[in-house]
Amino acid sequence: MNTIEVDKYRFLEVSSNPNIIISLKGEKNFCELSQKDKSNFLKSNFKLSSYSEFNQIHSVMVNGHDSTENNEFDGFITKEKNHAFAIKTADCIPLIIWDESKELLCGLHCGWKGLQQGIIGKILEENNYQSLTKSYIGPHICKDHFEVRQDLIDKFMQTGNDIKPYLAQRSNKIFMNLRQFCVDELHEYGIEINTKYSPCSYAENDHFFSWRRDPGNPLRNLTIAWL
């Protein structure tokens, strides 16, 4: 993977087909730009025609699939070429999924709430989206730092998700492997994971923002994808 620097903004280039880049912490942070300025930057430097981001509220609403007010979506699905979408995270998983022919692209904001509510299955169980076969799991909080409490465990159990295999106990604390939960669900749908590289947002302080590490920090990591 390559690091791209443009006007002191830094990005990690994950893939060029489909296109996936991740904004990195640096002297200047891409996430601090207005949506209009982000759009202009991407048009000028990545030759894109347009750009969209959403008000993410840990729901299962997906742009291109659902209708909602106030631009409140936690994912997108598109066939539109040269239009970039962003998934904003600060410990949750940014999941990008696509088809073999690179004609269909999906991005999902997969925090524990979205996973517990079934955001992945909602898309992959749709007949129209069964062509989605490949995926990328972006930077998120890793199992060594994602401490959970009984109330979270109970919420998963209430929806029929036994997450005990994803839990580990250390020093009277319980930690969850969010990535493995996501991986196993993707494999259930026959989705291939493009790379095993998923940096930990909590541990890699020099590159990524983390809500758990820095509570109250409004800045986010942006996983930007387009066909």
SSE order, one letter for each helix or strand: EEEHEEEEEHHEEHEEHEE
- Portion of residues in beta strands equals 25-35%
Number of helices: 5
Helix content range: 10-25%
In the CATH scheme, what's the topology name?
CNF1/YfiH-like putative cysteine hydrolases
Instruction: Return the average pLDDT rounded to an integer.
Output: 95
Key phrases:
227 residues; alpha+beta; CNF1/YfiH-like putative cysteine hydrolases; 5 helices; 14 strands; 19% helix
Q: Can you walk through the features of this model?
A:
This protein has helices at residues 35-46, 112-117, 119-124, 150-158, 178-188, and strands at 2-6, 9-16, 19-24, 50-52, 75-78, 83-89, 93-99, 105-110, 132-137, 147-148, 167-170, 173-176, 192-193, 221-226. It has a single domain, classed as CNF1/YfiH-like putative cysteine hydrolases, CATH 3.60.140. The strands form 3 sheets. A 6-stranded mixed sheet has the order 1-2-3-14-6-4, with helices on one face. The protein is α+β, with helices and mostly antiparallel strands. The mean pLDDT is 95.
Provide the fold topology.
Blueprint: E1 2-6, E2 9-16, E3 19-24, H1 35-46, E4 50-52, E5 75-78, E6 83-89, E7 93-99, E8 105-110, H2 112-117, H3 119-124, E9 132-137, E10 147-148, H4 150-158, E11 167-170, E12 173-176, H5 178-188, E13 192-193, E14 221-226
Parallel strand pairs: 4-6, 9-13
Antiparallel strand pairs: 1-2, 2-3, 3-14, 5-8, 6-14, 7-8, 7-9, 10-12, 11-12
Give a quick precis of the structure.
With 227 residues, this protein is of the alpha+beta class.
